[in-house]
Amino acid sequence: MGLTTLEDLLAEELKDLYSAENQLVKALPKMAKAASSPDLRKGFEKHLKQTEEHVKRLEKVCEELGVSPRGKKCKGMEGLIEEGSETAKEDADPDVKDAALIAAAQRVEHYEMAGYGCVRTYAKLLGHKSAAKLLQQTLDEEGDTDKGLTKLAESINVDAETPDEAESDGKVKSDKKKSRKKLAMA
Asked: How does pLDDT run across 45-77, given as a tens digit for each residue?
């Protein structure tokens, strides 16, 4: 398909997001399995449910616009997921691996936010109000997920900061975890 109009571009970008979200549906369970933090694992599991809803929402938008969501492979998401997969396979300190998984997940979220921001804007400009509203809803959820990952990183990164082998009796990391829990409760 040639891109001669903004409608064409909107259709192509929706297909790209549809592919990206479907790839993510397959990747998130693996990310959850690789996480050692129960909070991070729960976060990945929660985002999987959201992502499944994002797929359904994209299908609805495409149906409204008379566009098939299939037919394109999102190479950007494919690369981001490959990087995340490599991280998940790393032989690393569990806290450091969790910090790396968060970084990989945030790269995915930023990619998705950029894509949804564009298609939402195209839909608005083209007068597709219902589609724009649905796309904005997903964009908001992606932003919330990113903020949640940042908050989680603030505690997990504290644990990753001190390697196990540098501890003399395990007290340093234990004290940091207690401090982190106090901060989270405040």
From this structure: 999 999 999 999 999 999 999 999 998 999 999
What residues contact residue 171 under an 8 Å CB cut-off, 6+ apart? Answer: none
Spans of all domains in the chain: 6-185
What is the C-alpha separation between 102 and 157, in angstroms, rounded? Answer: 10
Q: Which two tokens stand for residue 52?
A: 């499944």
Instruction: Report the distance separating Cα 186 and Cα 166, nearest Å.
Output: 29
Alpha helices in the chain (DSSP H): 6-34, 38-65, 75-89, 94-125, 129-161, 171-185
Topology adopted by domain 6-185: Ferritin (1.20.1260)
User: Quick one: which H or E segment has residue 149?
Assistant: helix 129-161
Q: How far is residue 50's CA from residue 145's CA, in Å, rounded to a whole number? A: 10
Predicted model pTM: 0.84
Residue 178 CB-density burial (10 A; 0-12 exposed, 13-18 middle, 19+ buried): exposed
